[in-house]
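Module 6 notes. Inverse folding takes a fixed backbone as the condition and produces residue identities as the prediction. Think of it as a translation problem where the source language is geometry and the target language is the twenty amino acids. Below is one complete input and output pair. Work through it position by position during the lab.
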């Protein structure tokens, strides 16, 4: 865990919300997916949002990204009400916030070759006029950062990569885009534990290198404890508890948090063979 203190008043507010609510459908089909949540995310923090399936995590993420409108409440970017009323302002906002989704495949246009995927990132950051050689160097650097070989990727399509390679390519994109905020909705769910650890490490390195804020969405409260500065616990669309990772997980107050912690597999108990009769 980093040394970002919860009560340090110097910290810069990067994304916050008041009374943020999302209601889907009407009448008997009405679902309150996100129910009146308040939050304050600070620059450079790693925030985990933890909750069971259906608790509203992805719905909140989509509102943060402005992919769906809020039903009620307000989202503030760097302390000011977010304005995405025009196409231009929306594009500007999306320069500041980027996402990695559960399904890496959905992030790519299948007809776009990998070099173009990476080149587009350089262009989005204003590098369109850079010399060709400089662009190649940037792409090579991004690939090295995630342990991919750029020359093996040129002229390939994203669907020609393995699941793990696709996810690393997503992180290479983030490396080039350098957003203020990265929203990661269980980016590692599709891959094996070993690649999962590597990718988490890459995300943490990226945060250390760029100072970006990472909002990490997960079911896994143990993982959240391991990587986060701040944790928000979500149950049925509400935040039942939030605070530093230590506060929330070592000293949980909500029954729901206690239950999530109890559900973490007890690996040590499982491997305690002293009771096994030989
Ligand atoms: N487009 C939609 N229309 C209607 N209901 C929806 C829609 N999207 C989500 N919901 C409902 O909102 C609730 C929250 O869903 P959401 O996808 O945000 O959960 P989640 O916490 O991301 O779950 P998971 O961990 O399984 O990804 C669920 O009851 C879901 O069925
Ligand atoms: Mg989800």
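Target side of the pair, the amino acids:
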């Amino acid at each position: 865990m980093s040394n970002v203190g919860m009560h340090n008043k110097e910290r810069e507010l990067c994304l916050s919300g008041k009374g943020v609510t999302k209601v889907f459908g009407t009448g008997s089909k009405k679902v309150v997916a996100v129910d009146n949540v308040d939050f304050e995310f600070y620059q450079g923090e790693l925030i985990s949002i933890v909750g069971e399936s259906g608790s509203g995590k992805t719905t909140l993420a989509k509102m943060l990204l402005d992919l769906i409108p809020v039903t009620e409440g307000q989202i503030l970017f760097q302390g000011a009400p977010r304005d995405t009323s025009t196409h231009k302002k929306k594009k500007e906002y999306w320069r500041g916030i980027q996402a990695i989704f559960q399904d890496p495949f959905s992030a790519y246009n299948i007809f776009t070759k990998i070099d173009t995927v990476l080149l587009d990132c350089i262009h989005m950051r204003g590098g369109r006029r850079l010399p060709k050689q400089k662009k190649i160097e940037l792409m090579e650097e991004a690939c090295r950062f995630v342990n991919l070989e750029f020359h093996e990727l040129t002229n390939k399509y994203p669907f020609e990569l393995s699941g793990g390679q696709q996810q690393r390519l997503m992180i290479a994109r983030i490396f080039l885009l350098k957003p203020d905020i990265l929203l990661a909705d269980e980016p590692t769910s599709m891959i094996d534990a070993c690649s999962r650890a590597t990718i988490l490490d890459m995300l943490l390195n990226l945060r250390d290198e760029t100072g970006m804020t990472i909002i990490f969405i997960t079911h896994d409260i143990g993982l959240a404890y391991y990587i986060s500065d701040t944790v928000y616990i979500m149950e049925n669309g509400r935040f039942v508890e939030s605070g530093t990772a230590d506060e929330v997980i070592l000293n949980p107050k909500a029954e729901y948090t206690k239950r999530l912690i109890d559900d973490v597999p007890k690996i040590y108990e499982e491997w305690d063979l002293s009771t096994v009769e030989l």
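Reference fact for the lab report: The radius of gyration is 20 Å.
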